Amino acid sequence: MSQPSWDDVVEMPDELDDETAEALSEDAIEVQDMTGEVCPYPQVEAKKAVAGLSPGDVLVQKTDHVPSTENVPKAVGDDAIAKVWKSGDGRYRIFLRKE
């Protein structure tokens, strides 16, 4: 089995299996745990972190706040490509790859 890659993160959150999401999280340059945090804090922290990344680096934000799955990608705009993964228990991971 090959190593998970950015291409394994799909547009539909429930299409990424837990094992792949975990492996991609382990390979990320930074993981932010925003569980329990609400907007706008996750957007602010994502925007600051993405600014410090090199092109191709991946930041993962863990959250349980559904609006963050839309607001964080909007906040980083063209600075990063964002994809969202949803677990079966209401947790999300927002994968942000610096452009």
From TrEMBL:
InterPro entries assigned: TusA-like, TusA-like_sf
Residues covered by the UPF0033 domain: 33-98
Leader sequence residues: none
Protein name: SirA family protein
